[in-house]
Amino acid sequence: MSSVEDRLKELNLELPSAPAAVGFYVPVLKTGNLVITSGQLPFIGKELAFKGKLGKEIHDREGQNAARIATLNALAHIKSCIGDLNDITQVVRLEGYVQSADGFNDQALVLNAASELLVDLFGESGKHTRIAVGVSELPLDSPVEIGLWVEV
Amino acid sequence: MSSVEDRLKELNLELPSAPAAVGFYVPVLKTGNLVITSGQLPFIGKELAFKGKLGKEIHDREGQNAARIATLNALAHIKSCIGDLNDITQVVRLEGYVQSADGFNDQALVLNAASELLVDLFGESGKHTRIAVGVSELPLDSPVEIGLWVEV
Amino acid sequence: MSSVEDRLKELNLELPSAPAAVGFYVPVLKTGNLVITSGQLPFIGKELAFKGKLGKEIHDREGQNAARIATLNALAHIKSCIGDLNDITQVVRLEGYVQSADGFNDQALVLNAASELLVDLFGESGKHTRIAVGVSELPLDSPVEIGLWVEV
User: A73 by DSSP, 3-state: which?
Assistant: First the structure.
């Protein structure tokens, strides 16, 4: 596999500049061989790319785009922590929270966009474990929040 | 303590065949000394054994059965990863999400069925830390989702 | 920085006696260099200091107090596990679940009280990654549930 950043270019994607953490916490840190991010929202610059609940204000495809953007933000933070995304030996865990209207049960479909992106970028070592839950409310009315745990 | 699989037999339980992961992720992986599962639903074969929200369509006892089934599915995946459940030195973490109707606050009661099963199977080393939260929606209208972290 | 317990005194705070776990699980355990707590509720003794949903029965300031109390309970458990809070080399992860009424999106504001407390107590090594989600229901109608992962 070509390097992760080459693969991003092939997919016409680029890492954003790592968004600043809001609050008394950090966006990413390393403990042992694990690098862990805070929950990422689909920020583009200082604005959320999408707002609202899946199954109500937000359709599946927008939710999937939001999941991709949040995942790229997580990867940007991980790069800022470890320097080179090629040092990731395994994507360990994706924590996916989907802001869901009553009766919306397609959280897996929304989060598949994030999971597929990780496999596109990292190949077999991009295959991760996943938690997929629907929650009633997320910070700033974000449709998704995504945390990543990777092994380096 | 007898072996974990003997204990399963004594409890008239058996490990299911490990259900296939749906999507671009894996049901289980190992990082360092930790083995981590994806969030498990109460599948029996290809069907959810239960659907609906606790406090509305689903009663406590059904929720507890769902929690046990999801936990057995998690253990089946862990066995497929490490080969022998006796290699587990500590159950580290149970992540328990309970699909809850408005006003349902007995998430602990539902998840106790999963926690009790782990202690029945693993004794003292089955005593884990736990997150117990009620969420508005889960994938496929599942009443529970359970993730396990174990140390080997 | 003075020792963590001196710092608690300066802030006019004290660690509670570690609340007993309810159920078939433990409030804290150590695996490798990580010490992990179960989800903590804002218990003072045997009673929850607050009940209800943010954005409905509970105001921001009460939610922040609840978050601080739950965090102190988590630290009390960690102390009971490792003996000395000064042995913490890094607060790794705060898992924050906020019981939220429909339309409440200030989970970050509520949890900032917990995050700020950790930085007040541990300085730079208190800066953690964070998951902040709003959930529809928590055990016992608690307004917040907080889990901590620390490195020792």
Answer: helix
- Output DSSP code: residue C52: S
Q: Which of residues 101-140 of C touch B (CB under 8 A)?
A: 135-140
What number is the ipTM of this complex? 0.94
Contact assessment for residue B81 and residue B88, using Cβ atoms and an 8 Å cutoff: no
Calpha distance A88→A78 (Å, rounded): 9
**Chain A contacts of B147, Cβ < 8 Å?**
129, 131
A31 in reach of chain B (CB within 8 A): no
Contacts of B69 (CB under 8 A, 6+ apart): B42, B43, B44, B49
Subunit contact B29:A129, Cβ cutoff 8 A: yes
Q: Among all residues of chain A, which has the CA nearest to that of B23?
A: A112
| Rg of chain A over all Cα atoms, to the nearest angstrom | 14
Q: C73-99: per-residue pLDDT in tens?
A: 999 999 999 999 999 999 999 999 999
What top-level class would CATH report for the domain C4-151? Answer: alpha beta
B71 touches chain C (CB under 8 A): no
**DSSP letter for each residue of B39-88:** PBP-EETTEES--S-BTTTB-HHHHHHHHHHHHHHHHHHHHHHHS-GGG-
| Helices and strands (H and E) in chain A: how many | 3, 7
Which pair of structure tokens corresponds to residue A106?
């397609």
How far, CA to CA in Å, does B105 sit from each of B72, B100, C51, C53, C75?
Answer: 24, 8, 11, 12, 25
Q: Where are the domains of chain A?
A: 4-151
pTM for this predicted structure: 0.96
Among the listed residues A21, A46, A139, the one whose alpha carbon sits nearest the alpha carbon of residue C108? A139
